[in-house]
Specification:
Length: 496
């Protein structure tokens, strides 16, 4: 195939790939826009869940404040006795339900710095209101379907005035006990004391991300103040851990998205982050979404390109099929063109070039090579005594000898050379940049290959060699080589 035909085939093939790929790119862009919108939906759902947690915390805090502020009867002697009987000390902690549920009025565990049960009498008898408030909120229906309200988050109340903490759930104090009551100081649990003293005005604030002492995992906490007689008494807290965040961000309507979704929640002030979820395959992130929500929390979402591949396999299959079919059509077209072109300049019997290859274009090329100092050699070849063979053994045997000679010639030259059957038993070889001192070796190689190909018969040939000169035409060069062939054949007959 000629160079310009190869270039045309390459251009068309590239155009086909670009055309079909543009459709794929369009689908990728459309998917990117659609998934960006879905990322915004995920973020809004998470923000709604956080708002619900804030609302729940404020509801519990409000109920607790009403309980503390409401008039109540003093505890009876029986209540005081039962309280002090259940009061215990374990692992340096003091309080109730430290190892088991031994004080039934309270559902959870109370830890305090006081060693005397009498110092916490009033608050302890009021804490069941905290249990009721948490329980009521846990029984609320999840009207939002996906706000994460159905799960049981870890809630507790910290009294800053009397230095005690009350966990809604039972905590084995043999394994965990609060000993550092300065945890609201900056850097301890990630909660700044200034949030309590200055910014707190009854609203809920979000702590920075910190490592929880109980679970030793990264969490963030929602804090809602509890006031008594106009002064800050305590804080209602709820911890949000990795599992909680997974429930919040889980894409229940699109499970496939979750497989390839990266979710990170980070603290804008400290830079700490919680890796909520990681894609099964982290090849290339084609959708990135980042949003800051109130409270100094940054949500980062990204979707791996594998989601697009898996979710759009039909599009990929169509793309590959269309590309393969179109490229095959181009290949078939140019193959047919090449075959037709080849057949036009090929000898039907031998497969070598025929006379039609000797075009003005080839002549011009050869002349340019000669003018630039490149050696172009013409070799005229014909069979010896072919007429005798045709007359005695028949033309079929003569054609077989011609075919054998053609195969020997073809197997002896390079791809850059030309082997031409001019007609009958007349052949012409055009060597491009072939050293003249190696030409006799080439003729010997042809004779050797001929013996291998036609081992059952004896075939000989004569040859004439001519090096093309400037301004020589193809006809001039061939006539010169043919004249040399004639002289060599006369010498061979004279020697015989």
């Amino acid at each position: 195939m000629k160079l310009h035909h190869k270039a045309l085939r390459l251009f068309i093939s590239v155009s086909v790939i670009v055309l079909t790929s543009s459709f794929l790119v369009y689908e990728l862009i459309a998917s990117d826009k659609a998934m960006n919108a879905y990322m915004r939906y995920i973020n809004e759902k998470a923000d709604s869940s956080f708002l619900y947690d804030k609302y729940t915390n404020q509801s519990i805090a409000a109920h607790l404040m009403r309980t503390f502020s409401s008039p109540h009867e003093p505890a009876s002697l029986e209540q005081q006795k039962a309280l002090c009987t259940a009061f215990d000390s374990v692992n340096g902690a003091h309080g109730l339900n430290l190892t088991k549920h031994n004080y039934l009025p309270l559902r959870g565990t109370l830890q305090t710095t006081s060693t005397k049960c009498s110092e916490q009498l009033d608050d302890i008898f009021l804490l069941p209101s905290f249990d009721r408030a948490v329980n009521v909120n846990r029984q609320q229906k999840d009207y939002g379907q996906g706000l994460g309200t159905l799960e049981y988050k870890f809630r507790y109340y910290v009294d800053l005035k009397n230095n005690y903490v009350y966990f809604y759930d039972l905590i084995d104090s043999r394994k965990f006990a609060i000993h550092n009551w300065s945890f609201l100081q900056k850097g301890t649990l990630g909660i700044d004391q200034n949030d309590i003293d200055g910014i707190f005005t009854g609203r809920t604030v979000i702590s920075s991300i910190y490592e929880d002492n109980l679970t030793e995992k990264k969490v963030m906490s929602f804090l809602t103040p509890v006031y008594y007689t106009g002064k800050l008494k305590g804080v209602v807290m709820v911890d949000i851990n990795k599992e909680n965040l997974q429930n919040i961000f889980y894409t229940s309507d699109r499970p496939l998205v979750w497989r390839y979704l990266n979710v990170t929640v980070s603290d804008t002030s400290s830079g700490k982050e919680i890796l909520v979820h990681k894609s099964e395959t982290d090849l290339f992130r084609y959708v990135d979404y980042e949003k800051d929500i109130p409270g100094g929390i940054r949500i980062t979402l990204s979707l791996d390109v594998m989601y697009f591949i898996v979710s759009s396999w039909k599009i990929f299959a169509f793309y590959l099929l269309a590309t393969i079919l179109l490229l095959n059509m181009v290949r078939t077209h140019f193959r047919l063109y090449h075959n037709v072109t080849r057949e036009n300049v090929s000898d039907a019997m031998t497969g070598l070039y025929n006379r039609k290859i000797l075009t003005p274009a080839l002549e011009q090329r050869l002349q340019q090579l000669v003018n630039t100092g490149t050696l172009v050699t013409f070799i005229a070849i014909d069979c010896d005594k072919l007429k005798v063979i045709n007359d005695t053994l028949g033309h079929k045997e003569g054609d077989r000898i011609i075919t054998h000679l053609a195969k020997a010639i073809q197997s002896s030259i390079r791809k850059s050379d030309y082997a031409i059957r001019l007609g009958g038993d007349e052949f012409c070889i055009i060597l491009i940049d072939h050293p003249s001192d190696l030409t006799p070796r080439l003729l010997e190689r042809i004779r050797y290959n001929l013996q291998i190909i036609a081992h059952d018969i004896s075939i000989s040939f004569s040859a004439g060699v001519y090096n093309m000169q400037p301004n020589d035409t193809i006809d001039d060069a061939y006539k010169a080589s043919d004249a040399q062939l004639y002289l060599n054949k006369q010498k061979k007959h004279a020697g015989a």
